[in-house]
Design brief:
Length: 85
């Protein structure tokens, strides 16, 4: 069983009329399995009115398992939807 830990490090308001209400988050992500660190990186996540879009490049580079990659992206999206900043 994997354990996911998230921490918001920085929030940046994106400026521009077309992308009003958009924020970029620097999110510290840590994934552990049986006290062994599988993934420990800072990911940039863009939250818009249309949804949550994490940068998948670092995730794809570090995690080779497609199922774990998909679960991690879903966990990030679920966590970010709860953020009010």
């Amino acid at each position: 069983m994997f354990k996911y830990e998230f921490a918001v490090l920085n929030v940046t308001q994106v400026k521009g009329k077309r992308i009003e209400g958009t924020r970029d988050y620097d999110l510290k992500v840590r994934v552990t399995r049986a006290d062994e660190v599988v993934f420990d990186e800072t990911i940039r996540v863009r939250k818009t009115l249309n949804g949550v879009f994490p940068e998948e490049e670092a995730i794809s580079r570090k995690i080779k398992s497609p199922s774990l990659r998909k679960d991690l992206i879903q966990e990030i999206k679920t966590y970010m939807k709860k953020q009010k900043k």
